[in-house]
Amino acid sequence: MTPETITTREEFLRALSEHPDWKEAVRAQILTEELLLLPVQFQAFVKRFDAFETSVNERFDQVHARFDRIEGDISESKGGHARTQIILKPDIVALELDLEYIRTLSATELNRMALNANGSISRDQRRSFWNADLVIETNGNTDTHYLAVEISYTADQRDINRARRNAEYLRSFTGQNATAVVASVRNDHDAQQAIDYGEVTWYPIERRDLSPA
Predict the structure, then answer these.
(1) What is the arithmetic mean of pLDDT over 162-182?
(2) In the prediction, which pLDDT does 14 show?
(3) Which of 34, 120, 148, 203 could form a disulfide with 183 if both were Cys (CB 3.0 to 4.6 A apart)?
């Protein structure tokens, strides 16, 4: 088919489909230069937008990471402050549990206690034990009763596990009663569930006790 033999619209459309170069020539005649360049310009825009989106996402990731670090620092600061306040008043913790405070065990005493257990735990386990937040010796009725206390602003499963493990060590090493205690302002879901199930005893820290005097 040649241009001279085309007599109907259908023949014209069929010829364009059979000859892509004719189609381009017709398009060039009908469309302006701006419209002809539009697909290329759109592709360039898409590339620029993709690059912009990538840059924005990277910046948001950096901001989120920064906020995560700040949140972590604040959480550690709150936890450290809560720990200090409880360590300064172990007798109050004992009284709240209807026990008579005798003394707070030092890391040295905890280490010696573990060593006297004939090597039943590893050095790493012993180190974790002597790094307990607080271990209190109390008098329960006529028997010695230990409190293995873990302290956090927001208690979580790690606090629960440490308190329970340390209480178990104390029972094993001394043959005396020991209670796992978590002292906190608030508790996450897992910690609250363990408290509700009676797996540990909760000593609530009041927010006002953490405020500057």
Answers:
(1) 94
(2) 72
(3) 203
Query: Does residue 170 sit in the same domain as residue 188?
Result: yes
Same domain, 77 and 145: no
- Domain contains 2: no
For the chain, what is the mean pLDDT?
78
Contacts 24+ apart (CB under 8 A), 191-194: 191/155, 191/156, 191/157, 191/159, 191/160, 194/157, 194/160
**Residue 17 in tokens:** 């489909």
User: Does residue 105 share a domain with residue 188?
Assistant: yes
pLDDT in tens, 129-149: 998 989 999 987 778 999 999
* Alpha carbons 13 and 23: distance in angstroms, whole number: 9
Digit-coded pLDDT (tens) for 24-80: 666 666 655 565 566 777 787 777 777 777 777 777 666 665 655 545 444 444 444
> Residue 24 and residue 30: Cα distance in Å, rounded?
10
Residues 187 and 204 in one domain: yes
Contact 163, 150 (CB under 8 A): yes
CB atoms under 10 Å from CB of 180, counted, come to 24
Question: Which position has the token pair 């509700």?
Answer: 196
Please list the alpha-helical segments (H only) found in 88-177: 90-96, 107-115, 123-130, 157-174
Distance CA 40, CA 21 (A): 19
Residues 74 and 98 in one domain: no
Give residue 66's identity as a one-letter amino acid code: R
- Global confidence as pTM: 0.61
Q: Name the domain count of the chain.
A: 2
